[in-house]
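ok so I'm stuck.
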Amino acid sequence: MKIKIENIGKVKYADIEINGITVIAGENNSGKSTVGKALYSVFNGLCNVDKRIKNERTDIIRSYLARFFDDLEIPNRKNNNRFIKHTYPEIYMITNRLSEIDHLGNVDNRAIVDEILDVLSSSNDSSLSDIRTYISSNLEKVSQLKVIDIILEIISLTDDDILRRIFLKYLRAEFNEQINNIFEKTTGIIELSIKTSKVSIRIKD
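replied:
not stuck anymore, here's the structure
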């Protein structure tokens, strides 16, 4: 296994072969931790990658669905905080339906709103009646909400797009938002090679 790092953290360039127990030694502030953080981030991103991609997509959709319900301008609305939290079954049902939509298929804003309305219509929760009525009576207006545009963008992301988000999330957490070399305003590169497989990540702050 080999890891190559360019312009990441305090490392301008490193090409390291990891074979069995590998010790990285050097003076303080020479970049030893940078190698470990980069390796940790890539391995975490790749661990159970299919499940991570699915969970990342559904988590993002769920958060924007909560915003969608919160943004609805329903007159004399009751239970105003009903959909702000993410723990209600309808949110999860809608999220699962939307996350299963083929991102390469012919999906538009109206199709997303139809999925939302279909789940709400099948619910036995009487407190949702005002929301169902509002959406069904204002389909065109609801379909044009910005949050629906965002949900459509998330559904349209490829698995590789989602994976890049996952890698970036881990890297930002490990490097406290300062991923690229602090002395070089150039693209950072992390390449991990395992046998015949290679993962290459490019980051530009």
